[in-house]
Design goal:
12 strands; 8 helices; 4-stranded antiparallel β-sheet; single chain; ATP hydrolysis activity
């Protein structure tokens, strides 16, 4: 079992504090969901975990199996087993999907143990079939000209191929129609197991109709203010966030960043 531990994490952007003491522990075999109103720091948390230079960690810690994640460069975090499916994936001209994924997979393997081309192609074809993706997408440049839904499927394809230890999925359901949502959810569900843990950041219960989380957390004012099981997400869908604000005496949860 692997464990990602976030302790009392404080993060600033351009001198403004966004995260104000986040505590979270994610084990492999677990799916966690973070929900909360806009501007409460959910995407900031994802960026801080992966080391986006725009986000300054001012105090607290992030460890993966006891190793200090904050001391790692972004590529080192990826090789250690962390993965981020971005809310707005970048386009990279001149680099095909297939070449990108094969390079990413080999970066996590020992020198001399690179995946063979035939094994890679077989695995890629099978995963693309699961995600109902056209085979020609493998030879298209990374995210270039992709629709929003294609970009999100492609993020899940990368996750399924790279097989990270802990994946952070930042609003992977954003902009998906119901059919695409089911397909993406199937891909995530196929990954669940003893060697994989997942943190899903979402605004909506609808994704959690297809992926049952083990833990649901609510973020407000840059902190995790409430945690529970899957039933918490259902209550939020039915009643919104006002009952939590009333329960905790929160008047204004906005901190200015997602």
């Amino acid at each position: 079992m692997s464990t990602l531990v976030i302790k009392d994490l404080h993060v600033e952007i351009e001198g403004k504090e966004i995260l104000k003491g986040v505590n979270l522990t994610i084990n492999t075999s677990e799916i966690h969901a973070i929900m909360g109103p806009n501007g409460t720091g959910k995407s900031t948390l994802a960026s801080a975990i992966m080391g986006h230079p725009k986000y300054e960690v001012t105090s607290g810690s992030i460890t993966l199996d006891g190793e200090d994640v904050l001391d790692m460069e972004v590529d080192e975090r990826a090789r250690a087993g962390l993965f981020l499916a971005m809310q707005y994936p970048s386009e990279i001209s001149g680099v095909t999907n297939a070449d990108f994924m094969r390079s990413a997979m080999n970066a996590r393997r020992e020198e001399g143990d690179e995946i063979s081309l035939m094994k890679f192609i077989r695995e890629l074809d099978s995963k693309m079939e699961v995600l109902d993706m056209d085979q020609d997408m493998a030879q298209r440049y990374l995210n270039e000209g992709f629709s929003g839904g294609e970009k999100k499927r492609n993020e899940i394809l990368q996750m399924m191929m790279i097989k990270p230890t802990i994946a952070v999925l930042d609003e992977i359901d954003s902009g998906l129609d119901i059919d695409a949502l089911k397909v993406v959810s199937d891909g995530i569900n196929q990954m669940k197991g003893e060697d994989f843990g997942c943190l899903i950041i979402t605004h909506y219960q609808r994704l959690l109709n297809y992926i049952t989380p083990d833990h649901v957390h609510v973020m407000m004012q840059g902190r995790v203010v409430k945690s529970g099981g899957a039933e918490l997400a259902h209550k939020l869908e039915a009643e919104g966030y006002d009952w939590i604000k009333q329960e905790l005496g929160i008047e204004d949860e906005t901190v200015g960043q997602a």
